[in-house]
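I had to read the description of the data format several times before I understood it. In essence, backbone conformation is discretised, so a fold becomes a row of integers matching the chain in length. I therefore recommend that a typical entry be quoted early in the introduction. For illustration, here is how one protein appears when written out as sequence plus structure tokens.

***
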Amino acid sequence: MDVRDYAAHDAVGLADLIRSGQVNAAEVHAAARSAIEAVNPQLNAVVGPLFDAPLDHDASGPFAGVPFAIKDLVCHAAGVTHEYGSRLTAGFAYPYDTSLMARWRAAGLATMGRTNTPEMGFNASTEPVANGPTRNPWDTTRSPGGSSGGSSALVAARALPVAHANDGGGSIRIPAANCGLVGLKPTRGRTPVGPDADDPLYGLGIEFAVTRTVRDAAALLDAVEGPDVGDRFAIARPARPYATEVGADPGRLRVMLSPRGWADVFVDPACVAAAEATGRVLAELGHEVDHGTPPVDVAGLDLVNLRYWCGFLAQAVYGLSETLGREVGDATVEHTVARCAEFGRGFTMFDLAEAGAVQNAITRAVGGWFTDVDVLVTPTVSRPAWLLGELDADDEHLDAPGWVGKVFTYAPFTALFNVTGQPAVSLPVATSPDGLPVGVQLVGRVGSEDVLLRVAAQLEQAMPWSDRAPTVLAG
């Protein structure tokens, strides 16, 4: 298998080729290695060298032999370096797999390396001091987004068909929008997050992946969804495999369109136009489409994000510092991460309890609005891929509130649904006047990944993106 042939297939397609004996897994791995090595010098998406051989995986799994990579944050493999994008944790490794890593292996995915992430995952751009900036394959002066920027850059460049990603405020959906990918954030509790935590980032953090096709997102979700032993709670399992929802008739749905959202921030006309175009297409497909915005307590949402993110960073930074016996300082932690950790370290139990009460109120208000709405459509981000350097986490002029506010100005539409726990997906339905991908976010009720996948598959047919290719392209 040559690199061009490899890059033309999504994960389901490669799995079918391997299963049918048209190619063997070793050929696919060799092509993947060549593809990654060809594009990575331009993208800087890989952390450290590729593994000498893919990590152990089940050759009978549904994705047996399909190349894969894990983001250098949260999901980790036994004995594999895991650094959170930070100098503080250089060389650190856990002696065990996370629950999700075990499921990636059981699915047959062949993990070939680690992908770049901003320090501790808190940036809408991927340019950590520890590893340098990852560049967007559509325009290497621009950011792929964050925090799953390394994974998204490799998948967009077709060096990998799919890659691990996670999302605490938009970190799957933001880089999917910037890189022209499908970025599904499942419902809270749909995918396992243990054993290191049962509610990472106070329940905001969700584990999954970025993909090029809707069918890959559905099939991957089938492979890893479901509760794990010891989980705090479990949600209802799907009535049938998610893969069967791709191409299934969603029926006539009530769709609300909110092209400018609920926050008082600038939204690029290309992003507004993409959301409005999506609404028109959905109406043409037979859905009932209207304009409407959920009742969002914006000040409350800002409070929740500030306290939860800073509380999480305090726990992560100072916890790892104590574990590893390394000092927190300018030589080990970026400026804004350190300021956020310091800020969070000063919180009382009352501060976090108050944030929890606000989260509860927001979740119930927005959930009540969705009682009569099947799908909400918004832009994914406020502008197409921004220049590298615009979101500098080492900017000494920013304090904790200043940094949190700046990050979510670029991504004002995504974080709400980490707070409420609802499923959301970014789809690359359009391009900007200068040729950059533009993503649109679809949001459903809690547990309604099936509905989102049906509608996403409709849009994949009606507003196709598979024929668009970035400048940096494997093969």
User: Anything to note?
Assistant: The longest strand covers residues 424-431.
